[in-house]
Design a protein that fits this description.
The structure is a single chain. This protein is α+β, with helices and mostly antiparallel strands. About 40% of the residues lie in helices and about 35% in strands. Strands 2-3-1-4 form a four-stranded antiparallel beta sheet, covered by helices on one side. Strand 2 and strand 3 form a beta hairpin. Helix 1 packs antiparallel against helix 2.
């Protein structure tokens, strides 16, 4: 199994609008690609920056073939949609993990 983790560092002024967008549109669109089997959406309890709030979304995939499919076919348009709406209010880091049994 593979986990695709997206770490978001968001300016607090955009939090409400961004959360609504993520919960009502973006995450659903990511899941509708058919590449992922489930996700977990988390908010960091404390932040090092008082003007910032941090989130993490872990998307779970069966294998790297599905990760490659997501990257090659879907990710560019989905990332651009978020940038078009919230560019300048956040930065993101993405990491891919292999589960160790």
């Amino acid at each position: 199994m593979i986990t695709y983790s997206v770490f978001i560092y968001l300016k607090k002024v955009a939090e409400s609008d961004w959360l609504n967008f993520m919960k009502q549109k973006h995450i659903e669109e990511v899941m509708n690609t058919g590449c992922f089997i489930e996700y977990k959406f988390k908010k960091q309890i404390e932040s090092d920056n008082e003007d910032e709030v941090n989130f993490r979304i872990d998307y779970y995939l069966k294998n790297m073939d599905k990760m490659n499919e997501y990257i090659e076919i879907h990710s560019t348009a989905l990332k651009q949609d978020v940038l078009d709406r919230f560019g300048g209010y956040f930065r993101a880091e993405r990491r891919i993990y292999e589960h160790i049994e």
